[in-house]
Amino acid sequence: MSDLAKDYVSVSQAAKIRGVSRQAILKALTRGTLKGSQVDSFWLIHRRDLAAFEPRTDGGVVRKRSKRKRIGRAGRPRHG
């Protein structure tokens, strides 16, 4: 294996190394939070860039807080 081939990993290898899913790596590549080179439909990620990558731990979900007022039990009418 050449030195150049040792310096780069695939999406699957990157996911295994970082302990995340392939989808997480692909999202990071398309968002630009992880550097990589796309050759046709195949991504190559330099090991140096993978080492600097910090995966998101929040599941990638951003939730906005509701502005509605919440009514507790005291605000509900009693039945019975």
Structure report:
It is a single chain. The chain has helices at residues 3-7, 11-18, 22-31, 47-52, and strands at 8-9, 37-39, 42-46. By secondary structure, the chain is of the alpha+beta class. The protein has a domain at 3-55: Arc Repressor Mutant, subunit A (Orthogonal Bundle), CATH 1.10.10. A 3-stranded antiparallel beta sheet has the order 1-3-2. The radius of gyration is 22 Å and the shape is rod-shaped. 12% of the residues are buried. The mean pLDDT is 82.
**What is the oligomeric state here?**
single chain
Predict the CATH topology of the domain at 3-55. Arc Repressor Mutant, subunit A
Rg over CA atoms = 22 Å
Low-confidence runs (pLDDT<50, min 5 residues)? none
Q: Major sheet: order of its strands? A: 1-3-2
Shape annotation: rod-shaped
Roughly how much helix do the residues carry, as a percent range? 25-40%
- Main β-sheet: number of strands, strand sense, barrel status? 3 strands, antiparallel
SSE order: HEHHEEH
- Helices, by number, come to 4
- For the secondary structure, the number of strands is 3
Second-tier CATH architecture of the domain at 3-55: Orthogonal Bundle
Query: β content, as a range?
Result: 5-15%
The CATH class assignment of the domain at 3-55 is Mainly Alpha
Mean pLDDT: 82
Q: Kindly, what is the distance between the CA atoms of the first and last residues, rounded to a whole number of angstroms? A: 78 Å
Task: Give me the secondary-structure category.
Answer: alpha+beta
